[in-house]
């Protein structure tokens, strides 16, 4: 979840109560005594995968970037996506540096550094270091 405007939070994906992984983008508009959830519309050809354990950040008040995480079929993702708030569509981002195996990560943080126009990723788990434990009540 990330702050988009002074009174709007954005949430993409996550694990639902039934164990499935969502690919929906929602906004939460904060008001004085309550808040309102609203599903964000998307256009374009790219259908986002369901993701969890990913990270997100806002760039230039125009883009929501999503990086890494895991899906129902892949434990560690290396892809980056961005949502464009001017025309409401997702696109896959091609980035520079690193090998795909080194870029697969989940449970990490990401921030935008405006001076260098860079996204900085910190921490997380890589496939060779992490083992997932599932708890089913």
UniProtKB/TrEMBL annotation:
UniProt xrefs under Gene3D superfamilies: Kelch-type beta propeller
Family matches, as SUPFAM superfamilies: Galactose oxidase, central domain
Repeat recorded as keyword: yes
Keywords for this protein: Kelch repeat, Repeat
Annotated Attractin/MKLN-like beta-propeller domain residues: 3-130
UniProt xrefs under Pfam families: Beta-prop_ATRN-LZTR1 (PF24981)
Source species, domain of life: Eukaryota
PANTHER family: ACYL-COA-BINDING DOMAIN-CONTAINING PROTEIN 5 (PTHR46093), FIBRONECTIN TYPE-III DOMAIN-CONTAINING PROTEIN (PTHR46093:SF18)
Protein name: Multiple epidermal growth factor-like domains protein 8-like
Biological source species: Saccoglossus kowalevskii (Acorn worm)
């Amino acid at each position: 979840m990330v702050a988009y405007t002074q009174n709007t939070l954005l949430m993409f994906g996550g694990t639902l109560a039934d164990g499935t992984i969502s690919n929906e983008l929602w906004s939460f508009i904060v008001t004085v005594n309550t808040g309102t959830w609203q599903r964000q519309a998307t256009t374009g050809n790219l259908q986002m995968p369901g993701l969890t354990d990913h990270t997100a950040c806002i760039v230039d008040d125009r883009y929501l970037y999503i990086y890494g995480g895991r899906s129902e079929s892949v434990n560690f993702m290396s892809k980056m996506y961005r949502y464009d708030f001017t025309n409401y569509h997702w696109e896959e981002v091609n980035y520079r540096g690193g090998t795909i195996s080194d870029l697969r990560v989940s449970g990490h943080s990401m921030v935008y550094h405006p001076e260098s126009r860079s996204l900085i990723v910190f921490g997380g788990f890589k496939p060779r270091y992490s083992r997932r434990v599932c708890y089913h009540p």
